[in-house]
Amino acid sequence: MRLRTDRLVPPGFNARSELRMVCAFLAVAATVLLTGFGLSYLSGWQGMFETLPGGTRVELENAVFPTFRQMLLPGIIAFAAASAAFLALAYRYVSYHYRGGSRCIYTMRRLPKRSEFFVRCCAIPLSGLVACQLIWRLLGLLMGLIYINATPVRWLAPGAWEQMVHLLTH
Predict the structure, then answer these.
(1) Of 43, 75, 71, nearest to 148 (Cα)?
(2) For each of the chain's 170 residues, which pLDDT tens digit applies?
(3) Which residues pair with 59 in a beta bridge?
């Protein structure tokens, strides 16, 4: 069975290009999340050591390793922006009917199902929001496991597991 993508967007929009745009936006947000976490983790790791004049690296005694939440800040911003973009996409679809194009709101009102207008305007944005949350949680869990398992126990803040779980469930 093949999904008819033309029923996912309002008349006047190309479903394939809209879906490509959503996938690209999710990929950019995921890349920002992973890159930001990786750079923050490496920066935190480097901050735990000092290089002596002879070139010897020594672990600092009073250094504090960044928390998992601090490392996820770029990703939190990226996924908040992605969520806002999906809400803006829904607004774009709805406003297009009333202000733009061929005024297809009149065509939509003649359809037998009154819900067709809302289904077409909200299918891709809501799917994008759900995908955004799912990707955020899965990648967050993966990065949390990396954070917990790759960081020496003496560097972890008290309650690191609880902090990771709380951040990903709320």
Answers:
(1) 71
(2) 455 666 778 777 888 898 899 999 899 989 999 999 999 999 999 988 888 888 888 888 888 888 888 888 888 888 889 889 999 999 988 887 777 655 566 666 666 677 777 888 888 999 999 999 999 899 999 999 999 999 998 888 888 888 888 877 77
(3) 49
Is the Cβ–Cβ distance between 117 and 108 less than 8 Å?
Answer: yes
Measuring CA to CA, which residue among 128, 117, 130, 165 is closest to residue 19? 128
Question: What is d(CA 8, CA 119) in angstroms, rounded to the nearest whole number?
Answer: 7
Q: Report the predicted TM-score, pTM, of the whole model to 2 decimal places.
A: 0.80
For 124-153, give one letter per residue: b (16+ CB within 10 A) or e.
bbeebbebbeebbeebbeebbeebeeebee
CB 132 within 8 A of CB 26: yes
Q: Would you list the DSSP string of 42-75?
A: HHHHHTTEEE-TTS-EEE-SS--PPPHHHHTHHH
Question: Which residue is listed with tokens 């496991």?
Answer: 145
